[in-house]
Amino acid sequence: MNWYPWLNVPYRQLVGQYAAGRGHHALLVHASPGNGDEALLYALSRWLICQQRNGEKSCGECHSCRLMLAGNHPDYHVLMPEKGKNSLGIEPIRQVIETLYSHAQQGGAKVVWLPQAELLTEAAANALLKTLEEPLANTFFLLACNEPSRLMATLRSRCFYWHLASPDEALSLQWLNRQAPGNPVDRLTALRLYDGAPIAAERLLQPQLWQQRSALCTALNNALPQRDMLALLPVLNHDDVAERLHWLCALLVDAMKWQQGAAGYVLNQDQQPLIQQLASRLSSTSLQQIVQQWLKCRQQLVNIAGVNRELLLTEQLLSWEQMLGSTGYSQSHSL
Questions:
Q1: Which neighbouring-strand residues pair with 140?
Q2: Which of 119, 71, 56 shows the shortest CA–CA distance to 302?
Q3: Where do you find CATH 1.20.272.10 in the chain?
């Protein structure tokens, strides 16, 4: 697993707590996607399981380390939803708990890692809660989540909360430049679109994904003068619709910032003419309504199984067309 330079400080802080005997048996790490929490918790897991630790580092040579590197350590458990499912049910939790109550097969620590803790069903969360309330000796639960509010309050209260913040923007831009030198404005845009998370920004900057976003921006730029918002349907109606709607909502929010004289704070630094066009064609009230409607649409697409994606998108785009037709908003903003 890759390691990232901005993880050095949080890693030393966390390992230091466990080395001093102050580490919590249940750690909840809150991070935006693309900040490297997976690498951080994997490294912590290796240190906890290592039998011959070298200070704040795992030795990489003991039997436990070799098993971890091979990906088959019997006392290291990763709990994720089955392929094709968007929730983690009670049965895997029960199986792991049953395993934990037997002795550690390597005679050391036992670690359970939940990379997406917010996907626990209520029954699964309750089953886990009982174990966290009565912790087993030398057993550690490492939970990661992007949205702590989706976790049961009682489950959160049994964990030690740790926020893995995004790195400083200047440092992230330096790292992105080392990965693949390119247009500085594009790198800044990608970084800001994902809350400053460098790994997510690097992913967006890959040619195929960047082209998809560019196609959306071009389609929107062409549709606005004609008030033909239905022309956006082909570029939105894809399996990754949630991400594409994230890009769209970011543009709309940027237009609201533009109207308020905050052009320096827009996320889409590479799309300022498009943002200005949005700001000139829609009032701030209309923009706010459209953003709220798209966020509701996105939530339905993500959370409702079997929803008709094309129909839902079509309905929203037609509503946008009607708003453009009725608003008559053409005031230019001198910002």
A1: 111
A2: 119
A3: 206-326
Q: For 44-55, how does the pLDDT look when each residue is reduced to its tens digit (9 = 90+)?
A: 999 999 999 999
pTM of the model: 0.90
Q: In the CATH scheme, what architecture does the domain 5-163 have?
A: 3-Layer(aba) Sandwich (3.40)
What does the alpha-carbon distance between residue 183 and residue 236 come to, in Å, rounded to a whole number? 26
pLDDT of the residue at 333: 38
One of 3.30.2000.10, 2.40.50.180, 1.10.1240.10, 1.20.272.10 is the CATH number of 206-326, namely 1.20.272.10
Rounded to an integer, the average pLDDT of 63-76 is 94
pLDDT digits (tens, 9 = 90+) for 140-178: 999 999 999 999 999 999 999 999 999 999 999 999 999
pLDDT at site 331: 42
- CATH 3.40.50.300: which residues of the chain? 5-163
End-to-end CA distance of the chain: 46
